């Protein structure tokens, strides 16, 4: 959930609404079909492409997504939600059988708990995945139009609200004045 949310710049509602049939695995990328989004006024849907990366943080590299599907015993073509609540019994954890979305509260608690393991002092929420992914792309000088399209933002002002500029980029503004 963390890897797909971050790399797809997904809102929680988009992430929690993903069904198995919405994610298609190709040789070099994942294609995620977002059937409903708050910015999709014409309900045409949107496709997000997540390229195969080279680190463990890539949902596609090292078959992270496929491993999840296999461990969760999900059928990739099914109408089931990819991320559902989990039940634990006698040391075993499984997705519940009912086709129900994971609650916002449960997702937030679990995601924040895992991120705090590597970044204990950050103030995080589920929207941090969306803004963190967009910020990382902007800091890597990805074309702004592509960032806007990947994040499904209608305007530059909404996109810009998600991206934190680095200290160096902020300093470069006055440095270019030649004072």
UniProtKB/TrEMBL annotation:
GO biological process: DNA integration; DNA recombination
Superkingdom, taxonomy of origin: Eukaryota
SUPFAM superfamilies, A to Z: DNA breaking-rejoining enzymes
Any one GO molecular function term: DNA binding
Keywords for the protein's UniProt record, in alphabetical order: DNA recombination
Name listed for the protein in its UniProt record: Tyr recombinase domain-containing protein
UniProt source species: Mytilus galloprovincialis
Lineage: Eukaryota, Metazoa, Spiralia, Lophotrochozoa, Mollusca
